[in-house]
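Many introductory courses stop at the sequence. We go one step further.
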Amino acid sequence: MKCKFTIKSAIFIKGKFSNLWQLLQKISGVLCLVLGSWLIFTTITLVSASSEPVDAFFVLGGSIRREIYMAQQAQQYPQTPILISQGSPESCLLLIFHKEAADLHNVWLERCANSTFGNFYYGIPILQRWGVHKVKLVTSPTHLPRAKWMAQILFGAHGIWVEPEIVHEQGIPGNRESWLKTGLDLTRSLLWAVLSQVIQPQCSSVTKLAEVDMSVSQHRDLKCEHQGGVGE
């Protein structure tokens, strides 16, 4: 009697595992199909975008040289929007763009990011709202290759082609890249490339440079970097 019960139990458990395995196979097949379709569609979008004109400039904060360069470029591309992610204080940026006689109406400041990953984390939803498909990434040699790889992963996952623009620093760079830091950022970028398809973080501090009140910001901001040639 006991033997019969054991055999029946084993058959029942085996049947349960067999059904579960079949279910997992079906789920895996559907996920592979969805992922494959998404990769094909994204690749086609990227290839198409690569031959199009640049839709926006994306400036990674951390160096006033990048912002000076961007102010100079703004003269040549007045219709192309510029997003500066956590750059110099607002008053400094105003002075830099005024010094280059650049138009301010297409320049936007994002103030939520506190890291390179944060630059992309908050920047992607903004660029998506603008309908951007090709972006020029303004960074420096001291930010490479980490910033370039992160941009290709995160922007690429949203069908945005990346064209790096390398602005050389002057003097001693303020940051040092390490392979550990690069590895950690690339790992979470791969994870976020998937999650950001359904999660859209919103920065509560996005300002148009033309709307910055110079008299107010001067009292609040720090002095500009001396390389900008606009500080006190």
